[in-house]
Amino acid sequence: MAKREFTVTNEYHYNTSSPTRWIISHLFRYKFLIITFIVLALATNTLYSQLRVFTGSAFDAVLQHNEGQLVFIAVAMLASILLCACVDLGARSVVQLLGSRFARDAREELYISLLGKSQTFHNRQRVGDIMARAANDMNQLQDMVVPGFDVIFDSFSSMAVVIIYIGLLNPQLLLVPVLYVIGFLIALYFYSRTLNPVSRKLREQFGVTNAVLNEAISGIEVVKSTSQEEQEKQKFAENATKYRDYFVRSGQIQGRYLPTLLFGIALALCFLHGLFLLLNHQITLGTLVSFMALAGNLRFVTDMSTWSFNLVQLGVAGSKRIIDLMKEETELDENDGGYQGEMQGDIVFENVSFGYGTTPILKNVSFHAKPGQTIAIVGQTGSGKSTLTKLVNRIYDAQQGRVLIDGKDVRQWNLDSLRSQISTIEQDIFLFSRSIAENIAYGFGSKADQAAIENAAKDAQAHEFIMSFKEGYNTVVGERGVMLSGGQRQRIAIARALLTDPRILILDDSTSAIDSATEDQIQKAIKRVLQGRTTLLITHRLSQIRWADKVLVMRNGALIDQGTHDELMERCDTYRRIFSHYDSAPATEQVEKATAVGGE
Ligand SMILES: Nc1ncnc2c1ncn2[C@@H]1O[C@H](COP(=O)(O)OP(=O)(O)OP(=O)(O)O)[C@@H](O)[C@H]1O
């Protein structure tokens, strides 16, 4: 079984070895619905064919002036029509239920799988492509069952029933229909084979087109500010054209569909053959009428097979894309049986090296943070400060060396237990498009009450600005929290961390452009959130560095020195360069200057 960072209890496991097996394993969860549908669909087709036979019998009754039989046939036809309508309604409802359950289960399966994927996986994937698979390919699955499978089963069962009925009328009449069915199946096989690769490419191109659109819309601010609408338009047009070309190609294949022509010829031959048997007194006129009406029923399967097979092909192509996504390798495992203790917050980096690809980013980093200590991390931009913190809660794993928490390698911890006791306040804070209260309570689930949320917000210096909104804590913050300023978002994130009360806090406070009143509030909030937990604090602010028990100085991925602010001022050149002009300029500026020096 593939590695996963998240699983749910009692999860149903589907066979993902191939698209067809996956579809079957989904559908077979609902055997009762399948059997009911098969029985009802067969009953509908039998009743429908019986109606054709009644029509022929009515002709014979008219020719024989048998009024009694004519009345009986009329009543039987009416009853059959009513029964047929009811049974058909049942069949359609059951298959709809089957299709929607299939789509729901598949959506849930994909969603759980995406939640369980590692950060490296999500870095690789384009969001637009995932969305295309999750939305459009999923819809394609539902269409594959209804009307796809529904129509295919219906037409093939109708074909079988028609052949049986014709055989019962007179076995000699089977000659042309059977030849037609054989020809039809061969043509259908070649049709599917030609259409299959085009359908697959069509689905893939849809994913690419969607990803391009998604990127342009997500980065709309950059597109506008750099006046690159034309470039984006062209890029989209190129992809949309490719999509259209596949669509046209698929249409051409459908247009060359042979069975429609075959059917016309077969119907004419059926009539000739029937006429021949009639003239030789082997069948009655009524039988000929029934035969032609039954043969006419084959038109349904001929016409429907073009688009219903196309739907199935698109569904199978969509299934393949969904399975491929679910089967994508992920690097970390949830480690269900791992260590689950209450965390003290002791962090040790032991000769840790790491790179995102082949280029090393962190080189042989070692340090120790005791429970409750605040460790500031400073260094030039791109020196690996954020990367270092990402190894603590296993967003990534160290490639060499070990990261230990409370003396245990993070890889030995149960992932959920590890991550739930570590909070991160990123530089680029992500808020969900939900209410402020929900955003603060995120990570605490439904356990947080309003009073606790408000207390956390007060401690994070956020209560005041939240109350200035008309809807207070119920204000919805817009996608990614766009309705809030950077400083406001940061305080919401601090409130979230205060509420979760983690043992280890990772705080990236590299933002600089904040006015002094807000700055003051943020400083207070950060000072409050540091209390009582081990904190890794990425910062450019001297005031915060002064609170730290230890400062780590990073340069080009190496930890070049560590100690208290005073010790480092005394012995570390790079560090001294950072703060040598502190008296007059803000710390951020100093770091920027030092970055230029440090990078030399
Ligand atoms: N997801 C990623 N995939 C590939 N490379 C990455 C990824 N994230 C960061 N890097 C690279 O790793 C290096 C270190 O980045 P990191 O974000 O850790 O630096 P930093 O010191 O936190 O920088 P800053 O102060 O600008 O935030 C950079 O060269 C960056 O390009």
UniProtKB/TrEMBL annotation:
<dbReference type="InterPro" id="IPR011527">
    <property type="entry name" value="ABC1_TM_dom"/>
</dbReference>
<keyword id="KW-1133">Transmembrane helix</keyword>
<feature type="domain" description="ABC transporter">
    <location>
        <begin position="347"/>
        <end position="581"/>
    </location>
</feature>
<keyword id="KW-0547">Nucleotide-binding</keyword>
<dbReference type="InterPro" id="IPR017871">
    <property type="entry name" value="ABC_transporter-like_CS"/>
</dbReference>
<feature type="domain" description="ABC transmembrane type-1">
    <location>
        <begin position="53"/>
        <end position="314"/>
    </location>
</feature>
<dbReference type="GO" id="GO:0005524">
    <property type="term" value="F:ATP binding"/>
</dbReference>
<keyword id="KW-0067">ATP-binding</keyword>
<keyword id="KW-0813">Transport</keyword>
<dbReference type="InterPro" id="IPR039421">
    <property type="entry name" value="Type_1_exporter"/>
</dbReference>
<feature type="transmembrane region" description="Helical">
    <location>
        <begin position="257"/>
        <end position="277"/>
    </location>
</feature>
<dbReference type="InterPro" id="IPR036640">
    <property type="entry name" value="ABC1_TM_sf"/>
</dbReference>
<protein>
    <submittedName>
        <fullName>ATP-binding cassette subfamily B protein</fullName>
    </submittedName>
</protein>
<feature type="transmembrane region" description="Helical">
    <location>
        <begin position="30"/>
        <end position="48"/>
    </location>
</feature>
<dbReference type="GO" id="GO:0016887">
    <property type="term" value="F:ATP hydrolysis activity"/>
</dbReference>
<feature type="transmembrane region" description="Helical">
    <location>
        <begin position="174"/>
        <end position="191"/>
    </location>
</feature>
<dbReference type="GO" id="GO:0005886">
    <property type="term" value="C:plasma membrane"/>
</dbReference>
<dbReference type="Pfam" id="PF00664">
    <property type="entry name" value="ABC_membrane"/>
</dbReference>
<dbReference type="InterPro" id="IPR027417">
    <property type="entry name" value="P-loop_NTPase"/>
</dbReference>
<dbReference type="GO" id="GO:0015421">
    <property type="term" value="F:ABC-type oligopeptide transporter activity"/>
</dbReference>
<keyword id="KW-0812">Transmembrane</keyword>
<dbReference type="Pfam" id="PF00005">
    <property type="entry name" value="ABC_tran"/>
</dbReference>
<keyword id="KW-0472">Membrane</keyword>
<keyword id="KW-1003">Cell membrane</keyword>
<feature type="transmembrane region" description="Helical">
    <location>
        <begin position="148"/>
        <end position="168"/>
    </location>
</feature>
<feature type="transmembrane region" description="Helical">
    <location>
        <begin position="68"/>
        <end position="91"/>
    </location>
</feature>
<dbReference type="InterPro" id="IPR003593">
    <property type="entry name" value="AAA+_ATPase"/>
</dbReference>
<dbReference type="InterPro" id="IPR003439">
    <property type="entry name" value="ABC_transporter-like_ATP-bd"/>
</dbReference>
